[in-house]
From TrEMBL:
Pathway(s) where this gene product acts: Nucleoside biosynthesis; alpha-ribazole biosynthesis; alpha-ribazole from 5,6-dimethylbenzimidazole: step 1/2
Keywords carried by this UniProt record: Cobalamin biosynthesis, Glycosyltransferase, Transferase
Protein species of origin: Thiohalocapsa marina
Function: Catalyzes the synthesis of alpha-ribazole-5'-phosphate from nicotinate mononucleotide (NAMN) and 5,6-dimethylbenzimidazole (DMB).
Enzyme class per UniProt: transferase
Family that this chain belongs to: Belongs to the CobT family.
Name of the coding gene: cobT
GO BP terms: cobalamin biosynthetic process
Name of this protein: Nicotinate-nucleotide--dimethylbenzimidazole phosphoribosyltransferase
Superkingdom in the source lineage: Bacteria
UniProt xrefs under PANTHER family: NICOTINATE-NUCLEOTIDE--DIMETHYLBENZIMIDAZOLE PHOSPHORIBOSYLTRANSFERASE
GO molecular function terms attached to this record: nicotinate-nucleotide-dimethylbenzimidazole phosphoribosyltransferase activity
Amino acid sequence: MTASTHWVCTPAAELDAAMGRAAAARQAQLTKPPGALGRLEEVALRLAAMQGRERPSVERVRICVFAADNGVVEEGVSAFPPSVTMQMVMNMAAGGAAISVLALALEADIELVNLGTATPMSPHPAVRDATIAPGSANLARGPAMTDAQCDQALAQGRAAALRAIDAGAELFIGGEMGIGNTTASAAVACALLEQPAAALVGPGTGLDSAGVKHKQRVVARALERHRRAAQATPPDAGRPAPAAVLASLGGFDVAALAGAYVACAQRRLPVLLDGFISSVAALVAVRLCPGAADWMLFSHASAEPGHALVLQALGGVPLLDLEMRLGEGSGAATAVPLLRLACRLHGDMATFAEAGVKGQAPLSAPQ
């Protein structure tokens, strides 16, 4: 890797085990049967260890949406043209997209980062211009990114995470917008998990069965191209294999998400993952920085078929299953109220001593 991106291999921070134990001790004294709140208790304890405080909070949420086009749309893998990427970013900036509505409802900060759209985007005060190129190249015919472009995208993700930390965020959500990005994400996941295209390629923006089969063929061709290129080129001793896969088959948005997740793990900021694309980026992040997995929470089970395999690889159990597949960070945003409730229950419920209620008595056999 270049000197500017060696940071991705810096180890993740360790969870605060002592604070996790303190939170568990408090949880055991709350006025309820042990385990009665199910996974809400687990979430609160995870967040306590992540944030290093007995009573965690996720009131300050930062949502960062990375936008980029993908050259693979030339292969007819999407139901929408690339111009929609730019149009949807403008819709987000105007407050009309799903993630915009959710962010407003949650009183969450939202940042839109343009990494490169095929259709030029007019300057907008709500959109940060971080253009790398007018979208990635066609991954079916050659590498999606140069190594330098991939490193730039990773670094843009890191910069976004650091801005969130500087703003006092207690939770980071990464979103994406880019026509063709389910194709790039599926290709990356196939390569990292050593799975065939049919195992991970889905309808994306709404392809019919014939469209999905065509998309699978395109990804299969890209995987074969990547395999031959990897065999023909000696591995770069300074570049981790996951970064090579990312550059060859990914997109700017996937790379930026991966960079953001690594930086969050290094700087102790909990991440709430969205769906398929977000989780593929998380898989890249974990392969680059294994400890990053400790800093991830899983919001929902995407209706995109490949998500289940990626979740399995990450060891993630989602909080919700609403058959969502929109992207943008929308599934993660939908799960924020659950995290907030988990924190409020853990922090605000009375203990047995505070309420003057006798604790659970030891069970004994009936007389």
